[in-house]
Amino acid sequence: MKRGTIIIVCFLVLILLSIGAGALSMNAKDSYQKQETAIVRIYGDIREPITKGHVNFFRGHVSIPLEYDVQKMGNDYYLWFITSNIEGNYSFNINNIASYSNGAIQRVNIEKNYTVGNTTSDYYINPGAIVSNSDFSIKLFLNNDNAQSISISYPGKNSEMISPGENTIIFSLNSVKLTQIITIGVGKYNVPAYLIISGSQNNSQTGNTTNQTIINQTMQNYTFNVSFSPKKIERFEQINNNLSYPIEIFNNVNADFENVTIIFNPKIFLLTGEINKLNANKSAFFNLGIITNESFREIIFVNYKNYSYQLPVEITFRKNTTINLTNGNLYDCVNEIQGKICAPEEVCTLGSVPSRQGICCKGSCAVKPASAGGSWIGWLIALVILGIIGYLFFKFKNVKSTKNPIERQVQEIESKEKLMRRPVDIDKNQGKNLNKKS
């Protein structure tokens, strides 16, 4: 029996592990050379940002430092790192990833074992992933003693001559016309890059545009922090020249900020609605219009200094998509708003908004507190219950204070037997008296 229980438990654990593994995937290799740049794509339903703090590297079971970074591009993340110059068995893990699975957000850990062989890579690059809205560079370190030419796959570049040691390759955005995610070929490496071309926002009735939208505010040494509602837009649509989505930007900080920029692709989006300022702990709203009939995957950026917040937008156009006219313009509560529908006996602890499934709670659901009007009824019921309990208690106590019913029955039977024996005794006495007389 114990063996069967152990087998069942192991089976359930394997099922749970397979569920967590199915929610996230990555394309890391099993082996690398010494001093090679590893570029790993992490994808799946990721609900919170993955940062450098989530990643740990090990040689055997010992934690080791490596040069690495994590970049988000669209809905995917890219982890790049430079492998050790020591041969051996290594691993890395990414902990505490928020992923939506089985109807709820779960915390998932993923791990990858890999080996570093006994050969050294000809060269490695730094960084291994690019997110930039201006000209950028990639450093290439040649481990050989002889200069060589490597191929470059990028607009305006075909090859680059590199020398032993450190080399810097400059890339210009002048030849890039649209905000896009591309792959840059640098020799043997395929570098993912999100190249952002500054867009414009229409802030007037005449449709005039400016290169950037500036939100003029005052800043008082607070960390910049904003959030979007919805958190992403991901849907199928019919080809329609009037697609527009309302967007809310909420300032989570008790302060105002200067020089906040909204960056988007002007050949895909049209932003309408004035955003003159974003007050502390307040929201601003704009409409995101779609001006293309081709499917796309883009990102709206809100940037301040070194901080950047992203709104992923992915629209797939289909000719025969059926749209529910009653709620076609509403967001999906779980997928886009990333909220939940509270039960009738629950209340939302944060703001609620309409969604395709009904009223969507952007916070958590809590049990409704008892209303003040019904409190006296509760007290009355409690008093009645206490009265019944008291009555039963005293009645039971009185019953216990009397004699035991069985003992009482025995005494009654004995009394009856005595009464039945008394006439017999009288007859015997009478018999004795008669004998004496005779």
Describe this structure in words.
The protein is an alpha+beta fold. Among the domains are: 23-119, Macroglobulin (MG2) domain (Immunoglobulin-like), CATH 2.60.40; 122-197, Immunoglobulin-like (Sandwich); 201-323, Immunoglobulin-like (Sandwich), CATH 2.60.40. The chain is built from three helices and 32 strands. A hairpin with a 2-residue loop joins β6 and β7. The longest helix has 33 residues, at 405-437. The termini are far apart.
Write the layout of secondary structure elements.
Layout: H1 2-23, E1 24-26, E2 31-34, E3 37-44, E4 55-59, E5 62-63, E6 68-73, E7 76-82, E8 88-101, E9 104-120, E10 123-126, E11 130-132, E12 136-142, E13 148-154, E14 157-162, E15 165-171, E16 180-186, E17 189-195, E18 201-202, E19 209-210, E20 213-215, E21 226-229, E22 233-237, E23 244-251, E24 260-263, E25 269-272, E26 283-290, E27 296-304, E28 307-317, E29 346-348, E30 352-355, E31 358-361, E32 365-367, H2 375-401, H3 405-437
Parallel strand pairs: 2-9, 11-17, 22-28
Antiparallel strand pairs: 1-3, 3-7, 4-5, 4-8, 6-7, 8-9, 10-12, 12-15, 13-14, 13-16, 16-17, 18-19, 20-24, 21-23, 23-26, 24-27, 25-26, 27-28, 29-32, 30-31
